[in-house]
Design brief:
- The radius of gyration is 20 Å and the shape is globular.
- It is built from twelve helices and eight strands.
- The chain has an eight-stranded mixed β-sheet with strand order 1-2-4-3-5-6-7-8, with helices on both faces.
- A hairpin with a 5-residue loop joins strand 1 and strand 2.
- Helix 2 runs parallel beside helix 3.
- The protein has a single domain, classed as Rossmann fold (3-Layer(aba) Sandwich).
- With 313 residues, it is α/β, with parallel strands linked by helices.
Length: 313
Amino acid sequence: MTRRVLAAAGLAVLFAAALVLGGFAADPLRAVRAGSEALFRAAGAHEERFAAPDGTRLHAFVAGPLSAERPVVLVHGLGADAGYWAQTARFLTGRGRTAIAFDAPGSGASATPAAPEGLALSARVAAIEALATALGLSSFDLVGHSLGGLTAALYALERPRRVRRLVLVDSAGFSRFEAEGGARLRQIGAPKSRADARRLVDLLFFRPPLPATGAVADALARNYLVPNVQTTIRLAGKTDLLLGREGELPAGTALIWGEREILFPLADGRSAAERIPGGRLLVITGVGHDGPLEAPAVFHEALEKALGPGPRS
């Protein structure tokens, strides 16, 4: 009887694994999002809903008490959602901090705005203020990656009293592209073939966090081709919106950059840090544009240094 039970249990495990692998092959990003949500749950997160200025219903994960002395708001980049920060949220809660990751308009569990302008960069900036108001956050640390870094920086320029510490991770806004380079980036951002999709993977990752199979590349391409993402690309504005404004950013702003970053070269991050009052640059070796996913443990070590001392005990 025991052997039969063990055999049945083994078959059940194999069947479950087959279902998981089959689901991953069919839609890798959906499987990743499900795993990210599980990580948020493991960090004790609950969900919040709030309204953008145009009435669009937005969604956020909150891990930790909203009464925390210095919560950390995490802003994802283009083509991502709050799940991008799931491992980071778990790390921060393990350090006694409260982590808040929200889905930008049209991303994740947030609704798509009725008007295209609701997907513009200005709408993403306004979403941070809507989040802070809805959750009663008088001040907080702000961390943004890629387009989320540009969003976070522009918010800090608009609302400097809200932002205690600003951390920009492989951030847009400090790079200027010539016409040819800009056209190439726009082409890669709208992949039309598997070859385009693989170029997109190579642009974003030095060490892909998932096996760089055709299914993964295809899923990433589909994710970038959805109307919401393409509209955001069109409305996001120029790539150099922070050039010349580095000195206006909060003193002590920290930049975390991948050594193998291609999209926004490390030299641009280094130049920006030199122009920010008390600016700091922390470089993660052996990673590209997505250090939080490529080397989470090393990224979290850098993030802890960038945020400084934790809450008072």
